[in-house]
Amino acid sequence: MKRLERLKFYLMYGCLAALGLLGLGMCVFSPKAARESYTENRMLAAFPQLTLASLRDGSFMDGVEDWLSDAAPERDGIISTTERAVELLGVGQASAEQEETTLEAQLAAEAGAETEPQAEESGKEAALAGDSPAGDASQADMEPTGDEAGTVEETEDSGDEGEDATGVPKARFYFIRADGTEHNVYHFSSSNMANAVKLFDTIRAMLPEDGLVYFGQAPFPAVARQLTAESNNYVGWSSNVEDILEEYCADGFYGLRVTEALQDHLLAGEKLYFTTDHHWTPLGACYTAEYLLHSEGYPFLSYQSYTFKTYHNFVGSGGNENPSLKPESIDILEPILPSRSFVVKAGGKETEIPFMRTDLHTYMAYLGGTYGPWRRNETGVDANRKCLIVSDSYANALIPFLAPYYSEIHSINLGTDYITPATAGYSFNEYIAENGIDDVIFIPSTSSSINGSQLLTTIWKYID
Hints:
Number of domains: 2
Order of helices and strands: HEEHHHHHEEHEHEHEHHEHEEEEEHEHEH
Helix content: 25-40%
Largest sheet: 8 strands, mixed
Structural class: alpha/beta
Strand content: 15-25%
Strand order of the largest sheet: 7-5-15-13-14-12-10-11
Number of helices: 15
């Protein structure tokens, strides 16, 4: 009996010693410098610098915690394998970046007519009131796909723009044919549109009297490729989402018609989307920023006004999965003024990170990738105006082109990789008030737009 107890004792302490040696080995041999994570589209944390100040305010231990989380050997491989296993088992929820890539592949491959929205709540008041939105759950986590060319009846208006009991019309995104008829790509149900109206009005009420709320949606690359590949059939694209929102939202809301900002440039053959990646190019982001600022009467610095480092060996997420795709060029912007960037956590704790990584040859050069829960960028401009951008990773290329016009640009990505109720630290109301935000700009890609779970359900967890 004593021998068995002694064996248990040695086994327990042997395991503890092994774990201690493993932890020590991680601390000694794991990389200390920041590095790229291709699976998460961000820079992994570097080992923090030890100073008396960082020990005193607790930022050193916070940094060590972040570093330990990011320092596991073969981290990307483990994450990819785990996510693949979860996907095969049909459980869990894909990351924001996976969701976007999967949706692009789905858009490129799927055929069939639009799905009809499920039954929606009755009454405009029911859709616009209450603590949670009346979203169309059937479309919350996937991007609706339109029919392929030739599979719908060609009419002047093949989409029903009527309204149901919510009182807010349903909306659509569509291609325009040369004969004036339209080909639906996405539809947005009345309940999802009503949720958007409630959301934008709620955010507008948090802003100062002259504050503005903007909303626009960046089309996915597969949609842009279809438009240009079938230029003999289509002469443009459009959306009535912004028109409907402007009509139903309170004063101080403006629709950003990204399709209008990009259309002529896209049809002229300019490269607004990458071939090997699921993001727009910096040029596409620049044209969108120009449209936003021109709508407010501001002069705008053209793309040619900036200095770039151009690399010709960029291979994005799609290229890694498809070796037949050739490397392409990417322009990495050099900020006009010295800019600083900070991750903001609960209690206002800030950790400085790079604003741009001009040494990287990938999309992660823009803002050094995506960080959460909140991010604050000091632009070096005395503009006396601050904005908060709510978006997915499409905002990473957009923010540097807005930098000359705002003194601070804050951002949040609502993907669960970047923010949870436990890590948020702030509600939108608290963050806007504490940081003196003037404008809030919603500019997601269509994968996380009005039909996406981030605006239907996730954001409401952080409103108040």
